[in-house]
Amino acid sequence: MSLPLADRTEVLRWLRRTGAAHRREFTLVMLLFGLTTVVGLIGPQLLGRLVDSVSAGTAAWRVDALAGGFLAVLVVHALLARAARLRAAVFGESVLAEVREDVVARALRLPLGTVEDAGTGDLLSRSTADVDRLDFTVREAAPELTAAVLTIALTVVAMLLTSPLLACGMLVAVPLLVAVSRWYFPRAATTISRMLRDWAGVQSSIHETVRGARTIDSLRLTERRRAHNDEVLERAIDGERRHRTLLSVFLPTLELAYVLPIAAILLIGGWSYQAGWAELGTVTTVVLYAATLSAPLAELFAWLEEMQLGHAALTRILGVPDSPPDRAPQDPAPRGAGHDLVLRDVRFSYRAGREVLHGIDLRVPAGERLVIVGPSGAGKSTIGRLIAGVSVPDSGSVAFGDVEITAMPTARTRREVVLLTQEHHVFTASLRDNLSLPEAREWRDAELLDALGTVGAADWAARLPDGLDTIIGSGGHPVPAAVAQQLALARVVLADPHTLVLDEATSLLDGDSSRELERSLSTLLAGRTVIAIAHRLHTARTADRVAVVDGGRVVELGAHRDLLAADGSYAALHRAAFGE
Ligand SMILES: Nc1ncnc2c1ncn2[C@@H]1O[C@H](COP(=O)(O)OP(=O)(O)OP(=O)(O)O)[C@@H](O)[C@H]1O
């Protein structure tokens, strides 16, 4: 299920809001473009006068003065055009900085479940390729388009003021322009939005290939993966081809529409001159105007095309949901009703019609250590994801006290519960940034060093060349696997949730890891509610209670000893594991 696209009202609302927030810069840019265009219109008038003066046999000084004036106009025009574009670029950049920050903030607020459903590639292409596309639109297309529209409008007015009769020659282009626009733009809109979606597909596919490279290699899926990449690429190229085909009709027709009026004006001009209705200078001026119109008209259509691309990109960027579509956070009264974890009749399916949890009821008092065991595919990890608020139940509720986890804003969720898996990602960033992830707040160095100390990574950190500011991760200072685990634990220390869900991370508890890590983990667990998803049964012995999950249901619940004595599924699992 891909992320939604913004609709017309959302795009308009964004444009209005952005326009209002930057009213002064926007007005200044518009004024500069208007002024540039008006100055640009003086040139042809001067040349027209020059032609008239020469044909009337005027003095040399007058010709010199007109030529000098023409030069001065050119210089002023160039200076104004530069100022207008510079202001437009500054304006565009500040708008874009906001768009970038906004889309990244929204993406980070999305729950993992939504991101996984949509595919990370979709989100990635929206926050990179689409933002870049919009960047080009705002920085280049919007100002150029504005300049082109103003130039066309004012040039037409100037032509009409100079000679309405000659200006009529422009009309020959109108039917052609209307027809080709009505043919091209609706087709281009669909082609372009499909093309952007297909390119996002390419990005997703390549991203997944790179991420899963080892799996692909070990399962000898290289050929199949290559074929899949070829297929998505082919689809994107096909869209690109369709778009080019549309352009190959559109652009030559436009060219024709620009030249036809010049021919028409020359014809009308020659005829009017002979009839004594128009001076030679007037004909020159209007032809020059018509000729100068072809450039802004060409720009207008080229940039309209670019604006369409930008619009499609904007609908994708604004489509990244502000609040997760699957939940409605409302920041309930903080921690009013305690930290007891309560699951009531929780049902969940990854795909419609294929329920994997069939009504889970569970109550875990604050501070208890519960281990969930069960056969592979029973739904243990899924329960963990629901408790951590990563996924949302189809029905029923997961709550701390009487506050549902999905009703809490994401930042608040992290203070309640953290899911710790074996995937310990180290970001290519400073050690400080790697640790500061849990909350968007400034941590004091002492707090960060304390957290490192708690998990036993203080010595490693002390040996770093730039301390907390050392860039670690891929391309930076290397991080041994054990330290990566410790950093993940240090993040949890900083997030300080009252409940921890350990999925696979429990292999740490199984005694595989170094004593130091084990010690770090037990310091971390002390005083918190712990839900450990055990893939091996060792862990269960030290738990307060054990829940046995089978086929998406809790089939047994109780202390290790009691369950062994009851001689049910747990006892059977135990016998299978230890042969007792
Ligand atoms: N992302 C997913 N999309 C679709 N189905 C999924 C997804 N993740 C898990 N499932 C299915 O949901 C069911 C429960 O899976 P879950 O991972 O919760 O089981 P588990 O008890 O943790 O198993 P294991 O011990 O093998 O990790 C399985 O049938 C699994 O195939």
Automatic annotation (TrEMBL):
State the annotated membrane topology for this chain.
Answer: Multi-pass membrane protein
Key word Isomerase present in the record?
no
Q: Tell me if Nucleotidyltransferase is a UniProt keyword of this record.
A: no
Q: Show the coiled coil region(s).
A: none
Q: Sorted alphabetically, which PROSITE patterns does this protein's record hold?
A: ABC_TM1F, ABC_TRANSPORTER_2
GO MF annotations, alphabetized: ABC-type oligopeptide transporter activity; ATP binding; ATP hydrolysis activity
**Which SUPFAM superfamilies has this protein been placed in?**
ABC transporter transmembrane region, P-loop containing nucleoside triphosphate hydrolases
Instruction: Describe the location of the ABC transmembrane type-1 domain by residue ranges.
Output: 28-309
Question: Can you cite an annotated GO cellular component?
Answer: plasma membrane
Q: Keywords on this record? A: ATP-binding, Cell inner membrane, Cell membrane, Membrane, Nucleotide-binding, Transmembrane, Transmembrane helix, Transport
A family per Pfam: ABC_tran
Highest taxon listed in the record's lineage:
Bacteria
Domain ABC transporter intervals: 341-576
Main subcellular location: membrane
Compartment(s) of residence: Cell membrane
User: Which sequence ranges are marked TM in the entry?
Assistant: 26-47, 59-80, 141-158, 164-185, 245-268, 280-304
Top-level taxonomy: Bacteria, Bacillati, Actinomycetota, Actinomycetes, Pseudonocardiales
What is the protein named?
A: ATP-binding cassette subfamily C protein
